[in-house]
Design a protein that fits this description.
It is elongated, with a radius of gyration of 31 Å. The protein is built from 19 helices and 6 strands. It has 478 residues and is an all-alpha fold.
């Protein structure tokens, strides 16, 4: 593949985002969508009685995809207007239809409606990939729902959980993102055909004041472009809060993936779990033994970018003047596209990692068992009280032994707490009885049942309803 090595190229295009998502934000997608919108406008105007013929509409349809970009670019150098340059190029390809192209419309008719269509198409790609990540995590959670492991609060050992239950925490946040994503897709509306300041004055002139026909015009365009409706009111543009809302949804996905990737990086440091790793993958140029969590680090890095990117549409929405201003254009064409490209890249890596996570059961158990005696002390103390022991005296003795054990562990010694308790007649417990108390499964609460319930009630219905898109995977190339 030839590369441009003399000027900047976005890493989203050369390294991270999929070709599928890149096409959604490509020039060809943009300008062919403009033409589809011009066809929809002409067809609706014809059906509503304006002087547009079937032959003209047919000619426009025949030339949606054969855009002469040289003609458009040459014209833009003269008129300095991208929409009118493409009207000109379309007219050259469709001479019979040239007089009625863009009839009654303003630039935002194609520009803003196309932006909405592109975001919808991008969200549908995100939706598909998100569901596949959720399917991977659901499978993992079910497989490891019974395996006890150490849980942490403040990154300090707390009561045990299970490996599968922890996975449901990652999955639950993606489930929340999925619900938000469904809402965004289902409520996304076209701008419609609103005119220069949103008053539809030009269409009032064309249709001689027939409000019903103007409303039907928008409905027909929305139907053809696959939308249930258009913005009820607007200035020249759709509200830029739409961009903020969409990018907020993308930011939410990035937040969830960042949480997952950070947890995985810590677990890999603990040697309990690992992300997938290629046989010849190099972790460090200096330290050949290193097994760095490079994929999860990339998720963290890209997620950080997307989460910060949400500030762009926030400021853009908050600084629009009256019916419109153009200080949104340069910003939104970068920030919106890159948020989609970023989340696309994140979910690709998420599909890869969640499809091949490695668990090391012995390390999981070793870490848990090194701390479990401390967590079992309350049960040990209560059993001793039932046998006639003094609760306050037992509590003080356990406190002393726990402090001693904590010091020994920090000095690199094995945890002596169990031996100290068994050797003390105050506790009236044998080694065999203590081993029974120290069974990890006794301390995970309802973790296995919670996994089963969450999957059956929340996740499996989504996976069943979308089973035709499951099975997607992603192979890391760099």
């Amino acid at each position: 593949m030839s590369r441009n090595i003399n000027s900047y190229e976005s890493p989203f295009c050369t390294r991270y985002a999929s070709e599928e998502m890149q096409y959604v934000f490509s020039a060809d997608k943009k300008f062919t969508t403009w033409r589809r919108l011009w066809v929809a406008l002409a067809r609706a105007e014809m059906k509503l009685g304006l002087p547009v013929t079937e032959a003209q509409v047919k000619q426009l349809e025949e030339h949606i995809n054969d855009i002469d970009y040289d003609v458009a670019e040459a014209r833009e150098k003269v008129v300095r207007h991208d929409v009118m340059s493409h009207v000109y190029a379309y007219g050259k390809a469709c001479p019979d239809a040239e007089p009625i192209i863009h009839l009654g419309a303003t630039s935002c008719y194609v520009g803003d409606n196309t932006d909405i269509i592109i975001m919808r198409d991008g969200l549908n790609i995100i939706r598909r990939k998100l569901i596949n990540v959720m399917a991977n995590l659901a499978k993992f959670a079910d497989e490891y729902k019974d395996m006890p492991c150490m849980a942490y609060t403040h990154l300090q050992p707390a009561q045990p959980t299970t490996v599968g239950k922890r996975a449901t925490l990652w999955l639950n946040e993606l489930y929340m993102d999925f619900q938000e994503l469904e809402y965004r897709i289902s409520t996304l509306k076209l701008l419609g055909s609103k005119g220069t300041t949103g008053t539809q004055a030009s269409f009032m002139e064309l249709f001689e004041g027939d409000t019903d026909k103007i409303k039907k015009l928008e409905k027909m365009i929305a139907d053809e472009m696959g939308f249930e409706g258009v913005a009820e009111v607007s200035g020249q543009t759709y509200s830029r809060k739409v961009d903020f809302n969409v990018l907020s949804t993308l930011s939410g996905i990035a937040q969830s993936c960042s949480k997952f990737s950070n947890d995985m990086r810590i677990l890999q440091s603990f040697e309990e779990m690992e992300e997938p790793r290629e046989k010849s993958q190099i972790g460090s140029s200096a330290m050949a033994y290193k097994r760095n969590p490079m994929r999860c680090e990339r998720i963290t890095s890209l997620s950080r970018y997307v989460m910060i990117d949400i500030l762009n549409p926030a400021f853009t929405a908050g600084t629009q003047w009256f019916e419109r201003t153009l200080d949104d254009s340069a910003n939104k064409r970068i920030s919106v596209a890159e948020a989609f490209l970023g989340v696309d890249a994140i979910l690709n890596i998420m599909m890869n990692v969640t499809d091949g996570m490695v668990v090391y059961p012995e390390m999981v158990r070793r870490r848990l068992m090194s701390k479990l005696p401390f967590m079992a002390t309350e049960n040990i103390m209560m059993d001793a009280v039932k046998k006639g022991g003094d609760r306050q005296a037992l509590h003080e003795r356990i406190r002393e032994y726990s402090m001693q054990a904590a010091v020994d562990i920090k000095q690199g010694k094995d945890n002596p707490l169990c031996d100290l308790i068994v050797a003390d007649p105050m506790f009236m417990i044998t080694k065999e009885e203590l081993d029974a108390v120290l069974k990890p499964e006794n301390y995970v609460g309802r973790s296995p049942q919670q996994v089963e319930e969450f999957l059956s009630e929340c996740i499996n219905p989504i996976l069943e309803a979308n089973k035709d898109i499951l099975g997607e995977n992603f192979e890391m190339k760099n």
